[in-house]
Amino acid sequence: MSEAAGFERSGRSNAETGQTPNGEAADHVGTSPTALLELLDAEYTQEILEAAGREARSARKLAELCGASRPTVYRRLNSLQAAGLVETGVEYDADGHHRTVFETTLEAVSVDVTDDGLSVTVTTAAPDEPATRTEQRRSRH
């Protein structure tokens, strides 16, 4: 196994504009509270978030650490990325090989029951940086 020579992040979203740095709409905007809670409760999601929170890891490594199949891990990672809870990057080896790696951005989730329904507050941060985004999502039930 070769050592990583570098790590490059991509696709951070901006909380104030709801856009990625290149001006595209951020995918996580509009995720319903119910969908977010279902995602967080889905099998392997919490294990993936924990493993990717310690350091950026490839999907293959996450599957190995979580005991899940790679297709399952990729499905969860796609959903987590769309919800703005993981960030992708590229890890370069000293010999020039590269792979996509995933790192958790989720800091906290707070669920409140209000007169209007559920209020879910999600706090995320870019990896290795202080919290940069707090988002509130409401649902009436």
Compact description:
The chain contains four helices and six strands. The protein is an alpha+beta fold and 141 residues long. The protein has a single domain (4-106), classed as Arc Repressor Mutant, subunit A, CATH 1.10.10.
- Rg computed from alpha carbons, rounded to a whole number of angstroms: 16 Å
Helical coverage, percent range? 25-40%
- How many strand segments? 6
The CATH H-level superfamily is Winged helix-like DNA-binding domain superfamily/Winged helix DNA-binding domain
- Strand line-up across the major sheet: 1-2-3
Overall residue-averaged pLDDT value: 75
Distance between the termini: 51 Å
Strand content: 25-35%
* Overall body shape: elongated
- Low-pLDDT windows of residues: 1-29, 130-141
CATH class: Mainly Alpha
Structural class: alpha+beta
Integer tally of domains: 1
Biggest sheet statistics: 3 strands, antiparallel
Describe the structure in your own words.
The chain is an alpha+beta fold and 141 residues long. The chain has a single domain, classed as Arc Repressor Mutant, subunit A (Orthogonal Bundle). The protein has helices spanning 33-41, 45-54, 59-66, 70-82; strands spanning 4-10, 86-93, 98-104, 106-114, 117-125, 131-139. The strands form two sheets. The protein has a three-stranded antiparallel beta sheet. It has a three-stranded antiparallel beta sheet with strand order 4-5-6, with no helix packed on it. Helix 2 crosses helix 3 and helix 3 packs across helix 4. The longest helix is centred in the middle third of the chain and has 13 residues, at 70-82. The radius of gyration is 16 Å and the shape is elongated. 23% of the residues are buried.
